[in-house]
Amino acid sequence: MRRLRKIMTVFALVLLLVLGLLAGALGVSVYANLGSNKSITANGPLIDAKELDACAVVLIDFERLVVSRPSLLSILPNPLEEIRITVFPETIFTSGLLPRENTDSAILGFDTCIATLEENSWTVTHSALGQPWFPVADNNALIASGTGTSISFGVAQVSSSTLIIANTNQDIQIQQIRLDAELSFPNANVWAVGLAIAAGALVVLFIALTVAYIVHTRRRPRA
Known about the structure:
With about 220 residues, the protein is α+β, with helices and mostly antiparallel strands. It has 4 helices and 11 strands; from the N terminus they run αβββββαββββαββα. α1 runs antiparallel to α4. The longest helix has about 35 residues, at about 1-35. The two termini are about 15 Å apart.
């Protein structure tokens, strides 16, 4: 019985140390990868088609958009999932979101290049060839918009909307459009500090209990 208690005590101490080390490692990993407004980026679709050379406005409609998180980060709450749009060559462009149910009526009478994915390759077709390009900037039909060399929207917004991109620099023709997923946690610093404190507390508790166990064992009278 005494031998069994000894084994259980040693096992509990080892488990306590392992938990402390895991909490410390997780805290360091969270801060290194996500702290100070850092984010994890996953490469998404790359639209690369010859037809983009003649496109001033590109429309992309997603049937399904999913961003998967690493299993280790699934314990962290309140993730911020975004889709970042960039173009090549780098230039200032405008991007916006149209409500999916209102897309057809919004672009009626205007031309857009509709990009669709077919058999793992992108094709681009015009919605109304010969008509004026759809005016993206300051359009009342948009539910969100932005201008710059890189633009981000929330995944939830993009999933329920149609993405539209307009080249505002007529001297540069867009050759590629990249859509990348970004995952960040606004409270990552707080979680990293909390994990570090928990790790320190577990290690201190392990040391205290280990010393107490050794002292208790040495003081025990021998039969």
